[in-house]
Every structure is written in structure tokens, then in C-alpha cells.
């Protein structure tokens, strides 16, 4: 937006202080003048028992009062301008620091902080809010850069594998093409899955959906039915329980959230004879979706990193059904997009418990 140049705030405040001081001085002098008029006659009276011809009159008082009044007003104007200019500078000093920090942030320096000293007032509340915003922006940018680096690495891996397979096939024309096509199919399927996961994660972050009524208990039943073949293949028992738990949001995203949680509970479980529980609960303050599973003992610091993109339950080791490492990252983004909270805790006997709390519809 193009704006025409105008007077500075400091000049405006200075003129405001000086004007207020002048008005107050004029009112004070007017009050003194009116008070004096009550006791001074309009003209000199002579006669027995009356004052002599040299008694002061209103005109004499006006001649003596007016010059002094103008002198006082001149002094007040000078004091108002100088004092107002200095006072405005002192009052606007915090705003100057905030402006400098804003310009630094606009230039790309998100690490700069104002850290305004002193007791709490409007300027310090603004500075603290600006510092908090910069901290969130810096963390968000760092997260996006880390995510972009990880995504580039993950996307480069299947492309590199594909290139290697094609080079081998070109150098060895007699190689079994069926095996090559099968491996290329697996690599391509993984690349497609990773791309779809990235698109889903972006959609959840942007909140590009129309909220509608969703029952988490139905999402849990659908996820259990969809993943039952995978659970049977890996020897995991799915236990579903709960009650109707209505919330508002995207049916597709909440179904994806539930499916991702149950998929992780099945894949990262005991080698055989494991169990995955999925439960929904409705409370006065919201609805709760809880998914937990048996498995290895997990350290609390490691659990805290599971919502980071491309972090897998078994480190970075890939298995056929391990996914692309975005399952819990997508769950976290979908939860935040629905104004909910995600909690990950370890089970004393091994495994993980994931709790999603969402607003009640």
C-alpha cells in the first residue's frame, strides 16, 4: 500500500502535549482574571470616605495583567514543545525497538527478540506478544526446513533405487525381467504412497475442509474392519470398544487419523500373539480416541520424537508394512487441525498408548 508522507507520531504527541498545556494555561489565567474582576471597580469613584483618585481600576489591572499573561503563555508554549518532544521520545522508545525488530524479521532474521525491560504495560504486552510470534515462526520455519530435507531424502531414495535397477537391466539384458518389474513395482508403489502422504499432511496443515458431524466410534469400526487382514497376517488381535463419540471435522481426515493409529498399533507390535486396542469415549469436555498396543518397551525420550516426520517406531528400519514414516506426523497435524490434543505414553508392560482428544460436537 502506497501512503502519502505525514507528520511523525512524535511530532503529533509533542503538539498534543503543548496544546493541552496551552489550553490549561489559558483556562487558569482566565480563572484568575475573573476572580480579580470581582474585587476591582470598573472606574475610580471620589468623594468623602471613598478611595483617592489613584485607586486601581479594571483598565489599570488589564494593562498590568495582559503582558504578564502573554509572557506566561509564551513560557508554557516553549515548555510544552520542548518537554513534549523529549517526553514523546521517551514514550515511543519501546515502539522504536518493536519497529526495528519487525524490520529485522521482514528481512529474514527470525532469531531476533525485543525482550523489552520494565513493568508490564501496553508496549511490553505488544513486545512480548511479538516475541512469542517470532518464536513460533522460527520453530515453524525450522520444522518446515527439516521436513523438506527429510522429504527430499525420502523421495530421492526410491528414484535412486529405480535408476539402479534400470542401469542393471541395461547392462544385463539377459536378466529376469519379471523380477525387475516386481521390484520396480514395489519401489514405485512406495513413492506413490509417500507422495499421497505428503499431500494429506499438507491438506491437514492448511485446514482445507468443511467441518461436519463425525462419530469416532464409526471411524474406529471402519478402521478395524479395513485392517483386519493385516492384523491376521501378523498375528495381532484387534479389540474394539467404546460408545458413540460425536465431534466435528473432516470425515476423510478423521478416518485417516484412526486408520493410521490402528495401522501403527498392528505393525509395531509383538512378532506374534500381540493385541491392539481401540476405544472411543464421550466426555462432557470432549471425545477421546485411544489406541494402544503390546510391543517392546519404549523409552520416554524416544516416544516424544515419534510425531516427527519420517520417524519410525523401529528407528529408520523399513519393513514391508512399516509405511513411509509419516503416520503419526499426519495424526498430529490432523489433531491440531481439529483443535484437539495428541498424547503418546509408554505402557509399563511394553508398547504404546496414543490418546486423541477432540471437541465434543
By CATH reckoning, the class of the largest domain would read: Alpha Beta
Question: What's the SSE pattern?
Answer: HHHHEHEEHEEHHEE
Write the CATH fold name of the largest domain: Heat Shock Protein 90
End-to-end CA span:
42 Å
The CATH H-level homologous superfamily of the largest domain: Histidine kinase-like ATPase, C-terminal domain
Q: Overall mean pLDDT score? A: 81
Shape: elongated
Gyration radius over CA: 38 Å
> Which class do the helix and strand fractions yield?
alpha+beta
**SS strand fraction:** 5-15%
Uncertain residue ranges? 314-320
Q: How helical, in percent, are the residues?
A: 55-70%
Largest sheet: 5 strands, mixed
Tally the beta strands: 7
Neighbour order of strands in the largest sheet: 2-4-5-7-6
Count of helical regions = 8
CATH architecture of the largest domain: 2-Layer Sandwich
Number of domains: 3
What features would you describe in this structure?
- The protein is α+β, with helices and mostly antiparallel strands.
- It has 3 domains: 9-43 and 54-109; 150-206; 212-358, Heat Shock Protein 90 (2-Layer Sandwich).
- It is built from 8 helices and 7 strands.
- The chain has helices at 9-37, 58-106, 122-171, 177-206, 216-233, 251-267, 300-303, 327-337; strands at 212-215, 236-242, 246-249, 274-283, 286-293, 341-346, 352-358.
- The chain has a 5-stranded mixed β-sheet with strand order 2-4-5-7-6, covered by helices on one side. The protein has a two-stranded antiparallel ribbon with strand order 1-3.
- β6 and β7 form a beta hairpin.
- α3 packs antiparallel against α4.
Amino acid at each position: 500500500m502506497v501512503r502519502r508522507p505525514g507528520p511523525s507520531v512524535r511530532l503529533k504527541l509533542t503538539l498534543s502535549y503543548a496544546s493541552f498545556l496551552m489550553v490549561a494555561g489559558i483556562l487558569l489565567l482566565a480563572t484568575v482574571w475573573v476572580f480579580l474582576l470581582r474585587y476591582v471597580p470598573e472606574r475610580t469613584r471620589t468623594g468623602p470616605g471613598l478611595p483617592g483618585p489613584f485607586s486601581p481600576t479594571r483598565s489599570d489591572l488589564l494593562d498590568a495583567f495582559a503582558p504578564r499573561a502573554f509572557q506566561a503563555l509564551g513560557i508554557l508554549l516553549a515548555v510544552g514543545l520542548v518537554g513534549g518532544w523529549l517526553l514523546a521520545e521517551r514514550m515511543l522508545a519501546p515502539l522504536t525497538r518493536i519497529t526495528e525488530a519487525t524490520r529485522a524479521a521482514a528481512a529474514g532474521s527470525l532469531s531476533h527478540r525485543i525482550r523489552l525491560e520494565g513493568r508490564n504495560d501496553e508496549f511490553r504486552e505488544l513486545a512480548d506478544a511479538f516475541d512469542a510470534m517470532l518464536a513460533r515462526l522460527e520453530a515453524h520455519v525450522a520444522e518446515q526446513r527439516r521436513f523438506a530435507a527429510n522429504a527430499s531424502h525420502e523421495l530421492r531414495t526410491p528414484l535412486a533405487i529405480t535408476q539402479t535397477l534400470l542401469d542393471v537391466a541395461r547392462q544385463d539384458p539377459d536378466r529376469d525381467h519379471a523380477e525387475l518389474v516386481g521390484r520396480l513395482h514395489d519401489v514405485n508403489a512406495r513413492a506413490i504412497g509417500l507422495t499421497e502422504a505428503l499431500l494429506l499432511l499438507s491438506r491437514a496443515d492448511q485446514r482445507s475442509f468443511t467441518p461436519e458431524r463425525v462419530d469416532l466410534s464409526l471411524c474406529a469400526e471402519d478402521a478395524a474392519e479395513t485392517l483386519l487382514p493385516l492384523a491376521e497376517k501378523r498375528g495381532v488381535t484387534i479389540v474394539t470398544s467404546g460408545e458413540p463419540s460425536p465431534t466435528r471435522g473432516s470425515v476423510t481426515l478423521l478416518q485417516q487419523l484412526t486408520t493410521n493409529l490402528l495401522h501403527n498399533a498392528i505393525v509395531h507390535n509383538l512378532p506374534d500373539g500381540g493385541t491392539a486396542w481401540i476405544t472411543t469415549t464421550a466426555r462432557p469436555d470432549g471425545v477421546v480416541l485411544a489406541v494402544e498396543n503390546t510391543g517392546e518397551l519404549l523409552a520416554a525420550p524416544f516416544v516424544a520424537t515419534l510425531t516427527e516426520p519420517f520417524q519410525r517406531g523401529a528407528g529408520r528400519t523399513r519393513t514391508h508394512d512399516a509405511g513411509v514414516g509419516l503416520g503419526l506426523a499426519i495424526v498430529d497435524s490432523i489433531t491440531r487441525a481439529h483443535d484437539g490434543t495428541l498424547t503418546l505414553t509408554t505402557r509399563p508392560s511394553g508398547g504404546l498408548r496414543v490418546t486423541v482428544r477432540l471437541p465434543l460436537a
